[in-house]
Amino acid sequence: MTALEPHAAQVEVERSTELEIDNHKAADRWLLGGALASGSFILGPIGIVMMLVGWLKLRRLESTGLQVRPWLVTWMGLFCLCDAGINMIGWSVDMMLHDTVLGQTVFGGFGRLVDGGYYMGYNARSLGGTSFDGEKLLEIASVTVLFPLRIAAAWAFFRMKRWGLQMMITTSWMYLFLWTAYLIDKGLHFTERFGSTEFGVVGFWAFNVFYWTPFLMLPYLYSLKRKPEDWADD
After folding, report:
1. Are 144 and 150 in contact (CB under 8 A)?
2. DSSP symbols for 18-51
3. CB neighbour burial string for 143-171, b if at least 16 within 10 angstroms, e if fewer
């Protein structure tokens, strides 16, 4: 054995490691891109396919012995990205695009089927969109503060960043506050919002099932291990 052979073997190992890391990043790009696409409503089917491709790539890497993040971290991060994206875009349309054909068609149909707050008196107030002040307040606060924070937290959590875990916990509590205020506001105008709709309360719960997210996320987040070697600071 020559003196160069061990060095050549080490170089080969380093190249193999770099290739695995690059493939891991490529799989993550597919997963993250799919989650963002799924959170956009229109590109939802494409996003599902992209996440499936990323999942297959990651499973293939795992089968070669490469250490990957816990799968539950991956799916929880992607779920929260999709959830926050869908809610942010939905309320953004009502907040800023309520005069467009798209806004009036989507929310007019939603109002007749599920929530009368998006049908009766729609666009009648100065800010446009839903005519219920409590809903409008939560809408503006969530679109400008909560949902952007949630998306950033979910992305960092997915990448195993320490601040992502901390912000996921913080935004989960914020989500719980939003959920509580949202239900109270609905209850204060129960008859107006559900009395004349096609599916009423049952339709509302079916459409808003994802608001249960904090009840699932908080116990899980507090049970995660916080070892320095598991979560990156950069």
Report:
1. no
2. HHHHHHHHHHHHHHHHHHHHHTTSTTHHHHHHHH
3. beebbebbbbbbbbbbebbbebbbbbbeb
Residue range of the domain that includes 63: 1-68
Domain boundary among 68, 97, 119: 68
Residues making up the chain, counted from first to last: 234
Q: Are residues 36 and 121 in the same domain?
A: no
Per the listing, tokens 């998006």 go with 118
pTM of the model: 0.83
Query: What's the pLDDT tens digit per position in 120-153?
Result: 888 888 888 888 889 999 999 999 999 999 999 9
Give start and end residues of each alpha helix (H) in the chain: 4-38, 44-63, 71-96, 101-113, 133-141, 147-158, 162-188, 190-194, 200-207, 213-223
Q: Which burial class, exposed, middle or buried, applies to 199 when counting CB atoms under 10 A from its CB (0-12, 13-18, 19+)? A: middle
Residues 217 and 111 both lie in one domain: yes
- Answer yes or no: do 226 and 153 share one domain: yes
